[in-house]
């Protein structure tokens, strides 16, 4: 904090002669910056000639130079000053973006674009039309957050604050309705925003100027009670600070001293809040001393009390007894030079940093209300950045430091009548509709964004104006949830609640269809449904269907539960390792078992082996040897538990002339499909001993059990089946 904050009015006075201001500013710049400033200044003067601002009627060029003077005083680098001079170019040149890209560096273009967007949105998002103070307060808070969230460079917000400050200085020339509307918006939105960012000189100026137009009688009353003009108060504080610095040096205390005169609005606000008379205020003039240790705090307190007489009852020790928010400092009031009361605050540098950027931050204390820890942490970071900018030796790194994405987790969009809504990042028009009203969300069927119709799934962006296209009646779709089109907790809860209140049977049926569709995607898995329901936390499948229909259970969770019933992958069984030529005879079934004769064998029903499939035997308990195909999944599962029961087998001399095998056909369902497939099988002289068909979602899945002499016989048959109309797949199971 500088020793005495320079008045914005003084800065504006220096900009009264634009050419002289430019020369004064350019004297401290390098050649590249001087050139950019001169080009921007001359372009603005030529382009803005004879132009006036629509809302206030102020000369555009005069406004631009005055606002640029404020930005220059804030030390935000030359790019920001250039952008402020050119802030109105988009109003007068359609090709401004291309022109500016050719004339200036990319940072200037980004800043001008950001300022233009902020200016346009603040003209649309009005709070003066809202009915109650509570609604206006909520809208103002949302607007402040929107301004921070929608800019890629924090300097855009500071340029907007400088622009508004100049508007407030010109406001006396405007009609009363315009003055009051702009002043109220300034008090509600822009002064608190400057306060949060720690830009005190702008904050105080905005508050006093807004107060002057909102409460003109009270403003004049406080102004008369002050026994000196502003410049006189500033000069008085400067002399007090010089005296304090001399005393600290004499006492060997290292410290910094700063001070300010209290402003008219803050005086009135304190009088009203604490119900005090003007004579009871002791902090009209305030001084702050920062030192290195707690011991130094009390040393400085003693020095001050020895220099000037303390005011009885006006000493508070918040170091020994911190406030609830851990604010620590010494506060005292003394009768200073010329018998004028001065408030003095004494604290260490660490205490000051905590007061400015920690949980005891001044802006939160002043504004009150409920805190948002995440938001406050972001504000703290921005304030530290702005506080450090004057101490950074490498100025080239500041441009990147000013870039911010701190507020990217929330977006802010506008209704057609200018109301600002906060939504989570990635939100769609569905979230927007439910944020306005639940019934509108239910009936939402489409949306216009900036006048263009867009799909409901389109993510919204900061600053967009959205209009909902709604049906006269109707309800939400569960697919909004399943497709991930809804992001806000409110919208999700309202959709689920609505669906839950609808016909329970229809909801369960919808859920059952979703479940069966997912189950069909895993044809090789047949989970126990009761166990699956229990795994997902439901007592019965009906409850699972209901939750799925309501959107409370995701398809992904169902898929994972189904897949969990897949058997563990058994060790691979290589047929060449197990199938050996037997030295023994064959049994009655024509199967050779290595070294053994006349054993009872049976062909496994799970895989239905047939010559010349590679086969392996598995010794069962009481049913002889079951013969499986070497790649049978059931065999792999059995062998994983009891590998010692595997036995090599081969086809011997066959007495059985035919073997049953399964084939599966998947096709688009149509009339005559089964007849056409049966005709192919009949022409190939295959005996069909079983048929199982399932039709769903216009697709048919058919399984045929046919008798063949050799597996190779089936390949020709399958190729003929594939030639039929609508066949998607034909294979041996």
UniProtKB/TrEMBL annotation:
One of its GO terms (molecular function) is guanosine-3',5'-bis(diphosphate) 3'-diphosphatase activity. GO terms for cellular component: plasma membrane. Residues 409-470 form the TGS domain. GO terms for biological process: guanosine tetraphosphate metabolic process; nucleobase-containing small molecule interconversion; response to starvation. Residues 662-733 form the ACT domain. Keywords: Transferase. SUPFAM superfamilies: ACT-like, HD-domain/PDEase-like, Nucleotidyltransferase, TGS-like. Pfam families: ACT_4 (PF13291), HD_4 (PF13328), RelA_SpoT (PF04607), TGS (PF02824). It comes from the Bacteria. InterPro entries: ACT-like_dom_sf, ACT_dom, Beta-grasp_dom_sf, NT_sf, RelA/Spo_fam, RelA_SpoT, TGS, TGS-like. Belongs to the relA/spoT family. PANTHER family: GTP PYROPHOSPHOKINASE, GUANOSINE-3',5'-BIS DIPHOSPHATE 3'-PYROPHOSPHOHYDROLASE. In eubacteria ppGpp (guanosine 3'-diphosphate 5'-diphosphate) is a mediator of the stringent response that coordinates a variety of cellular activities in response to changes in nutritional abundance. This is GTP pyrophosphokinase.
């Amino acid at each position: 904090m500088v020793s005495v904050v320079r008045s914005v009015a003084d800065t504006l006075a220096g900009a009264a002669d634009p050419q002289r201001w430019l020369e004064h500013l350019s004297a401290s710049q390098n050649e590249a910056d001087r050139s950019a400033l001169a080009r921007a200044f001359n372009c603005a003067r030529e382009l803005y000639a004879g132009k006036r601002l629509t809302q206030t009627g102020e000369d555009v060029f005069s406004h631009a130079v005055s606002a640029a003077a404020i930005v220059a005083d804030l030390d935000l680098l030359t790019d920001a000053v250039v952008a402020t001079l050119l802030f109105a170019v988009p109003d007068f040149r359609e090709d401004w973006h291309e022109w500016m890209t050719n004339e200036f560096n990319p940072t200037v273009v980004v800043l001008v674009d950001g300022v233009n967007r902020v200016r346009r949105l603040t003209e649309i998002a009005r709070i003066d039309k809202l009915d109650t103070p509570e609604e206006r307060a909520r809208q103002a808070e949302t607007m402040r957050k929107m301004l921070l969230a929608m800019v890629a460079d924090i300097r855009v917000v500071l340029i907007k604050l400088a622009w508004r400050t100049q508007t407030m200085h010109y406001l006396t020339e405007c009609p009363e309705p315009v003055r009051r509307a702009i002043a109220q918006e300034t008090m509600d939105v822009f002064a608190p925003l400057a306060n949060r960012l720690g830009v005190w000189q702008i904050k105080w100026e905005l508050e006093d100027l807004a107060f002057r137009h909102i409460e003109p009688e009270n403003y004049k009353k406080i102004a008369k009670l002050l026994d000196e003009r502003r410049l006189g108060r500033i000069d008085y504080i400067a002399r007090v600070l010089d005296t304090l610095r001399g005393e600290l040096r004499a006492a060997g205390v290292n410290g910094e001293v700063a001070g300010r005169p209290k402003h008219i609005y803050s005086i009135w606000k304190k009088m009203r809040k604490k119900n005090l008379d003007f004579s009871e205020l002791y902090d009209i003039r305030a001084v702050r001393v920062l030192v290195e240790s707690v011991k130094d705090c009390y040393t400085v307190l003693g020095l001050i009390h020895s220099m000037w007489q303390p005011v009885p009852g006006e000493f508070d020790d918040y170091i020994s007894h911190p406030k609830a928010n851990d604010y620590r400092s010494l506060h005292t009031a003394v009768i200073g030079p010329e018998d004028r009361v001065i408030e003095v605050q004494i604290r260490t540098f660490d205490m000051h940093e905590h007061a400015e950027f920690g949980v005891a931050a001044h802006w939160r204390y002043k504004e009150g209300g409920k805190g948002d820890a995440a938001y406050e942490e972001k504000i703290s970071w921005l304030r530290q950045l702005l506080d450090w900018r004057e101490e950074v030796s490498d100025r080239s790194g500041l441009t990147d430091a000013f870039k911010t994405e701190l507020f990217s987790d929330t977006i802010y969009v506008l209704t057609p009548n200018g109301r600002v809504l906060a939504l989570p990042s990635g939100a769609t028009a569905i979230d927007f509709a439910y944020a306005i009203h639940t019934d509108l969300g239910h009936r939402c069927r489409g949306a216009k964004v900036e006048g263009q119709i867009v799909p409901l799934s389109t993510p919204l962006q900061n600053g967009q104006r959205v209009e909902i296209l709604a049906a006269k009646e109707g309800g939400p779709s569960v697919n909004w949830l399943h497709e991930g089109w809804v992001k806000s907790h409110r919208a999700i809860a309202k959709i689920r609640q609505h669906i839950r209140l609808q016909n329970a049977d229809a909801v369960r049926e919808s859920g059952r269809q979703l479940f069966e569709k997912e189950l069909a995607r895993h044809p090789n898995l047949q989970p126990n449904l009761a166990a699956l329901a229990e795994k997902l936390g439901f007592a019965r499948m009906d409850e699972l269907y209901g939750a799925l229909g309501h959107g409370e259970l995701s398809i992904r969770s169902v898929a994972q539960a189904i897949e969990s019933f897949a058997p563990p992958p058994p060790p691979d069984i290589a047929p060449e390792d197990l199938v050996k030529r037997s030295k023994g005879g064959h049994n009655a079934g024509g199967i050779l078992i290595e070294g053994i004769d006349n054993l009872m064998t049976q062909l496994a029903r799970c895989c239905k082996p047939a010559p010349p499939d590679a086969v392996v035997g598995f010794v069962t308990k009481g049913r002889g040897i079951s013969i499986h195909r070497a790649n049978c999944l059931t065999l792999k599962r059995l062998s994983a538990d009891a590998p010692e029961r595997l036995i090599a087998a081969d086809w011997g001399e066959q007495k059985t002339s035919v073997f049953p095998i399964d084939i599966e056909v998947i096709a688009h369902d149509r009339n005559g499909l089964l007849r056409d497939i049966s005709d192919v099988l009949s022409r190939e002289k295959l005996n069909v001993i079983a048929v199982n068909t399932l039709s769903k979602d216009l697709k048919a899945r058919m399984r045929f059990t046919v008798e063949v002499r050799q597996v190779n016989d089936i390949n020709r048959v399958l190729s003929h089946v594939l030639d039929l109309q609508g066949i998607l797949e034909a294979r041996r199971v």
